[in-house]
Amino acid sequence: MAATNEPGEEELVRMLARDVNCMQDPDRMTRRRALNNLSSALVPGGVGGGQSTVLSPSPAAVCRFVQRNLQGPLLEVIEKDAVEKCRELALKILLAVVELMQQQQQQQQPPLGEEDTGLSTITVAFLPVAKRRIGVAPFLEPTEELRLAILHVLNVLLSTQAGWIPVLESKAARFPDFSSILVHELADSFPDAKRGACLGLGLAARYAPKALRLQQNVLLPPLLGNLGHQQSKVRQASLLALGNLLGVGNDSMARVVTDSVLPALKKLVFDRTPVLRRELVGVVGGWLQQGEDEGENAIPEDINSCIPYNFEGCEADLMFALLLGLSDEVPEVAEATREKVQAAGRAWVTRKEHQRRINSPSVEAEGSDSEGSSGAQRMVRFLLPSLLPKVLDDVGHWTLRMRHRSVLLLADVLRLAGPALVPFLSPTVSTLINAALDEEPEVRCAVAEAARALGEGVEISLPLDELLPLVRGARGAQMAERAAALYLLRSVLEGAVSAAAGAETSADAEKPAKAAATLGAGGEGPGKEILSSAEMEVLTRSLVDSSLLNVEEANEASLIALPLAEVLLSIVEAAPEGIKKMNFERRLVRVALQLLAVPLPESEERGFSVRGLVRRALKILAGREEESVGEGVVVLWERHFDGLLEEVVVGKEGWRKGSAGRMAFDTLVRECIRGTARQWDKIMAVITPQIVKGNDQGGQQQQQQQQQQQEEAELRLAHMLLLESLIDGSLPIAAKEVMEKAGERRMRQLLRDLLLPTIAWQAGRTAATVRKVGLVCLYRLLREGERGRLPRVALLEVAPLLLPVLQTNLDDYDATIRHLVALSISALFRAYRLSAVQGQASLLPPQAQILQVLPDLMRRLDDASNEVRQASCLALEGLFDIPGAASFFSEEPVLTAVVDQLLVHLDDAECAEPVWNVLDCMTALGIGVRRMVVERGSKGVHGEKVREKLGKPVVKKAS
Fold it and tell me: What is the pTM of this model?
């Protein structure tokens, strides 16, 4: 042998024989020292802490030495040595030698040389040892790291095709041993061991797919269990291993996927790690793309030899899992899903085309209705009968996040399905109705998205046929279901308009401004008509259905209001041409009126939303013809006032306070002031019986139940409040433009028949409220008469009847009522003064009434309320300011008592100024009265101020 620094196998045997023999020594330190020496001698760099050696053996010599002299002792130490450190060193030496052998094989690349035989020998010998150590339960290898090391050596041995030859071609059938190792390591509590087992499974799928397919039943359960592991790396490795395991095929793939795999994948859809969710998309998409790139041009007799596809019977389940990623919250995952869906669709089209060419090579491809559709759309439409039920079932899932994602998935399926959804429209709409009843806002938003997709995909008339009967209450639909149907209807209309506008824009890209779609038919605009005239007729009739508008239950009315307002606004915004017809506009205004009448608290967000939507819809309707939007809304109300009035007063005899018809009547009267003035007699014909009925039922009410009495009192109060609004708004217009000569008669009837009975004192809280509102109405009438906007003569003719009733209310327990009474008396006295100035002295009040009301007004100067004391001073000022008032007080003691009491109230800081005004008016009654006021005032603490203010000569007021 030539001189060399690389010793051969014989020299290695001579120099290391002692260390090999010491591996069986009873002393563990000896065994450990021997393993360290072997490591230092055989492995470049060493893996132990043995003595350094001058040996530099060649890799080939090391491989032959280990195979012939060291393999058996190493495996015996790995399997039987009780010392953990010795087993660890033996595994490290074996791993280093196996890697060295693989490097030699890659460099020399012999067909099947000695190195091949060496690897095969080690594999055949090591696999049973590994099976006995980590392929049983409980593990004979107690140390987690060593179990991982054994698995790592095994994976390295099987990482090449050569390593699998003894496993697959051996008569001993060693693959079940390897499968048992994987099963037990997948169930290992050590996370790294689980990941190592997943790596080994991937190697088996690559090099031994047929053998792996036979072991799927035992490998699948622990692998699926690891998909829920707490470590994301374990879940990711398990997912990749699952992709490899199912990729080799299964005799009952559809059952396995449906029963076992799909439930586990649905949980991964919500995994907290975006990388794992993206990996899920890749795995499922890879299954659906299996064999896509193989042999597209070749068409063999057996289609499976061209495209080895194993998921024919479970495509719907896999597509379900894949489409869930389209709604992922991470944009990158959603985009990756979109790409995979399109790729899966292309692969599906390729497979179908191959099948067609194999089965019917002479038949050309059909020009089906799928022309222009993507592969994903064609695939979803083909799978829809089995895919859609799975989606619909999960829409009612018990967890919020699954319901939310399932509804979003349904929206994606609807977009891809398009017209193919028509046979399944009824269950789809029914499912969306149930989902719209969900209390969670995110689910309801997803339902709106799905309904828009429905409107984009099918003819608008088809979902209308499903939704409008529910809106009208057919099929026993409850109010919540009707509200849900309206919620869907709004989104369906939006989707239809959006789809039509997109189609028009695509067809005429040069004129996008003229491509707007409309809902209404019959117009002459350039936009595409979504609804025919008959469909628009049915739609508007459904919205004004009496059972929908005349909802008296407050909760139900609140429930239906917002979706109905949204539908109204959607129609108005999208149908400028279709609502030009009067019957369509009239119905929409009727809907708007009822929505404004719904008693929603303004403080609630829903109340602001409903009223805001309705006001916006009315402005859009009015803006069609009117330049000024504000004036246009007024004109819109006036145009339809008469017809709306006839509709809302139907059934007025049975009205209660919360009746839908009464609230609509109340809203109509308040909204349209000029229309109310024009139809004043009709309005009063509705209001008067409701108020008079309450005034004339004294004895009868005592015989009725208390609940009925309360309802009638509330109804009366509601009409009194409406009357107050009419007096303030419509009555002056009516008096000027409508009543003409009959105005005085009607004013007398209003005061005598309506207001006078309501302000008469009655016991009870509701009666006090009615009395208060009646006094407000009276005060407004008197103020309008004082301003000349109402016939003053009619007011003063009824005044003798009013003053005694007002006087009785000056002692009411409610300060607000006392305040209103004092203001009304003050306004009445001012009206007397104006009449006297204008020469109508015959209308002055009787002296007896003046003398009767004066003491009550004086007592009110001691009232606890500042407002009442000030209003009483105004009433006294008006009394003494009436021309000829001096004739009422022929007896001086009366005036003297009044002056003395007024002087006392000069100390009241809040009423001092009004009292000075009263005293000033009294000094105008005559020289004697002025002298008496100054004389008595000079004796008090305010004497100097009295002489300064009231001692001046009286200046006669100009008439």
Answer: 0.75
